[in-house]
Hints:
The protein is of the alpha/beta class. It is 26% helix and 30% strand. It folds into two domains: 2-152, Rossmann fold, CATH 3.40.50; 170-257, Beta Barrel (Elongation Factor Tu (Ef-tu), domain 3). Helix 2 packs parallel to helix 3 (109-120). The radius of gyration is 19 Å and the shape is globular.
Amino acid sequence: MLLGASDTGKTTLAHAIHSQWLESGRAVAYLDCDVGQGSLGPPALLALQTQLEGDRSRRRFYFIGDTTPRGNFLPVIVGAAHLLRMARLSGAQDVVVDTTGLVAPEAGGTMLKLWKVEALRPDYVVALERQDELSQILGCLGHTYGDRLIVASPQAGVVPRSQAERAAGRNRRWRAYFLRAAKATLPYAWADVWERGLLAEGRLLGLDTASGLCAGMAVMVGSDVSGLEVLTPLKDLRRIARVRPGRVRLDPSCWCELPRD
Length: 261
């Protein structure tokens, strides 16, 4: 598992490790827990990539519904553990876990990372630290992990990104995901709907199968007594067993994030 603040090169290092393991012929998986700036799919999801025979791979997703782990610690940890089980069931011998840059103690970053380590029980923890921003996290792992806790400096050449650049990047990924979205009706009789009080036009929805994995996402555009009207790239909604509203709202005219409510 890789830990570190934003712009420390965690994802670059994670992909390098993953590629090296692949080249060695091992069955490996990549678990991307960065809901805002992930590298395996659109925002607001945890993602798992497992390698199949030959060069083929498979991706699975768990819906978080937000681009930050703040306020979402429980689903982030539950989802990561669920995807790790999927990796093991798929036969993965090794799993690389990338994480978000939330490490500030005052924002809950320390406890998020400690409970994620507790839930996933990685064999090794690699911490990329500039100064002492990880001191509280590392101070709680030293005796547990010993020489399996590896602390290193961030990679040279990492280019910091501003919040505006990060938001623009997310909006590009939203547009790419919803490029072929079409209007569809999802009857209430087909699926369990969580947190109905959050349902509103523009709300991002996670469309889950009975396994708990996310089959796709949708944006709500209306509703009546029988069901939800949504925009989604999914072609067949009959296998959807659960709908979970997220905290993100999107404007379908541009697929841009709307202000939080």
